[in-house]
Amino acid sequence: MSDNHKPAPMVDEISDFEVLEIAVRELAIEKGLFSADDHRRWTEYVHSVGPLPAGRLVAKAWLDPEFKKLAVTDGVKASLEVGVDWINSPPTKFGTPSDYCNLRVLEDTPRLKHVVVCTLCSCYPRPILGQSPEWYRTPNYRRRLVRWPRQVLSEFGLQLPEDMEIRVADSNQKTRYIVLPVRPAGTEGWSEDQLAEIVTRDCLIGVAVPKPGRKADDKRHVHPAVHPVHHDH
Amino acid sequence: MTTPDDKDHETQARRQALDTAPISLLETIRTQGRVWGDLAAQYGVSNPEPPWKINLDATCDVLGAGSCALPVLERRWEEDELSAELYADVPFPERQLLALAHSMIRRGLVNEDELTRRMAQVDARLKLV
Fold first, then answer.
1. Which residue in A123, A132, A171, A203 is the catalytic one?
2. Which is nearest to A60 in space by CA: A50, A75, A48?
3. Among residues A79, A89, A118, A171, which one is catalytic?
4. How far is the CA of A30 from the CAs of A34, A36, A226, B78, B110, in angstroms?
5. Residues in chain B closer than 8 A to A142 (CB atoms)
6. A203 catalytic residue (yes or no)
7. Catalytic residue of the set A35, A48, A121, A191
8. Cβ of B45 and A39 within 8 Å?
9. Which residues of A touch B28 (CB under 8 A)?
10. Is any Cβ of chain B less than 8 angstroms from the Cβ of A101?
11. Distance (Å, rounded) from C-alpha A63 to C-alpha A96?
């Protein structure tokens, strides 16, 4: 390893809490309460969950006013229609990733924008949105979003009009949030599948808004630099 | 949707079921254990959650499956109650872990002595160079 590539810092200390977690798990396995393989499959499953169900939920809400009503009043019940059971989650059938069963769906309007954070740690609606992105867990995002939401959103490339209200939802141990963005113009007549494709993870957190033709798996076009650097070669 | 009355009844039923008296082993960990926030600050690590959090989540959820040794909602209710009464000064997720161990001991899923012994074994194993 070169001097220029230093390893990331790590905690080089075994805490009583780390030891307690392992001891509890090992005893539960030895007593046959669950198997080591069940445990491993669960953690693998958690890492495989993505934002697709939440995108589907938003697309359904855009197309069906009754479903939208259900989504904003009872997010957990609405989640069932996109295959996410917060209490007995498929595919493993043994529960959600330990998040409390209280999902709130925050509806944006043309004058109101929601954005989600967890100021305390990194609470996130994992059963319906998968694992949180690294930036969501950074102190930078967590501390600054609640104080300067407009500034932080602009850093994500989302410029909001001055007269648009921004509400920051602070997730916690009990309540998780996703954003139901405004359906963009240019999507008239689209199918649920088409709509779901443009509701990306960042739209559901609230740091982006959906746009026709902008999908998570798009080829990422980079605009030419305004002030390009010219090379001689 | 549940009403406030429903919640009151639920809370009452839980309070009767859960013994929230302190457990010696867990009190020692609560008062002497180093929480992730402190360790992360000392070692310059920015991850807000300890690496063992994913294992804790899995343990909580698989306990609610299959044998249903500790149903998910009951565990969560008990965690609420223990968090308010006994582990209020412990940050999350250490508080979640203490509450889980507390619930398991009170329900007889593990006993305090065997957990103490197992912790000593695990500790020795992890510290082997």
1. A123
2. A75
3. A118
4. 8, 9, 63, 24, 10
5. 48
6. no
7. A121
8. no
9. 16
10. yes
11. 27
Task: Tell me how far apart the alpha carbons of residues A115 and A202 are, in angstroms, rounded to a whole number.
Answer: 10
Distance of CA B116 to the CA centre of its chain: 15
Encoded tokens for A212: 């026709």
User: DSSP H helical segments within chain A, as ranges?
Assistant: 16-30, 36-48, 52-63, 65-73, 75-80, 126-129, 139-147, 149-155, 192-198, 201-205
The reply to whether A123 belongs to the active site is: yes
CA angle at A30 for the pair A27 and A34, rounded to the nearest 5°: 90
Measured between CB atoms, which of B55, B114, B126 is closest to A27? B114
Q: Which residue of B has its CA nearest to A43?
A: B58
**Nearest-Cα residue of chain A relative to residue B126:** A14
Beta-carbon pairs below 8 A across chains A and B: 167
For tokens 């299959």, the residue is: B66
Whether residue A101 lies in the annotated active site: no
Identify whether A89 is a catalytic site residue: no
Contact B104, B110 (CB under 8 A): yes
Domains, chain A, with CATH or none? 18-44 (no CATH), 49-205 (3.90.330.10)
pLDDT digit string (tens) for chain A, length 233 residues: 445 677 778 888 999 999 999 999 999 999 999 999 989 888 887 777 788 899 999 999 999 999 999 999 999 999 999 988 887 654 444 444 455 568 999 999 999 999 999 987 778 888 889 888 878 877 789 889 999 999 999 999 999 999 999 999 999 767 899 999 999 999 999 999 999 999 999 999 999 999 997 776 666 667 778 787 877 76
Q: Where are the domains of chain B?
A: 22-127
